[in-house]
Amino acid sequence: MTDNNTTPKLRPIHRIEWPPAASVIYSEADDEVLLKQIKSDDPVHQDRAWATLYSRYRLAVWRRITAKVSHQEDAQDIYLCVWKTAVEKLPAEFVWQGKPIIVWLAGV
Fold first, then answer.
1. Which of 40, 57, 68, 103 is spaced 20 to 30 A from 96 at the CA atom?
2. Which tens digits make up the pLDDT trace of 2-56?
3. Which residues of 51-88 are buried (b: 16+ CB within 10 A; e: fewer)?
4. Cα–Cα distance measured from residue 87 to residue 100, given in angstroms and rounded to the nearest whole number
């Protein structure tokens, strides 16, 4: 990619795939570390922390919703709302108190 000055443009670093070893580091991180990464100013760390958090809790969130809601489309809507709310509010509102983030997600 170049512009009119023929200066090469670099892709944003947060769009570059990390080596698998970095993914392992994130998958083994506890919730407190992930929260710090989500609240950081570094989009690379934010992206990886969100991906790890989602991978870690997506099934638990889904199971909790489907245990209470029998209609599939309603469950899907609620599921999306939970994660949308998490993305919007968790970085600013969640305060680490030693409990897993799933406790907060369950209250959304």
1. 68
2. 455 555 554 454 454 544 444 545 667 899 999 999 999 999 889 999 999 999 9
3. ebbeebbeeebeebbbeeeeeeeebeebbeebbeebee
4. 16
Structure tokens at 91: 């970085």
CA distance linking residue 43 with residue 85, whole number of Å: 19
DSSP state of 2: B
Query: Which CATH number is associated with domain 22-106?
Result: 1.10.1740
The gap from C-alpha 42 to its chain's centroid, in whole angstroms, comes to: 14
Distance CA 49, CA 57 (A): 12
| Burial of residue 31 (number of CB atoms within 10 Å: 0-12, 13-18, 19+) | buried
For the stretch 59-108, pLDDT in tens is: 999 999 999 998 999 999 999 999 999 999 999 988 889 999 999 999 98
Which pTM value belongs to this model?
0.72
| Residues whose CB is less than 8 angstroms from the CB of residue 62 and which lie 6 or more positions away in sequence, other chains included | 75, 79
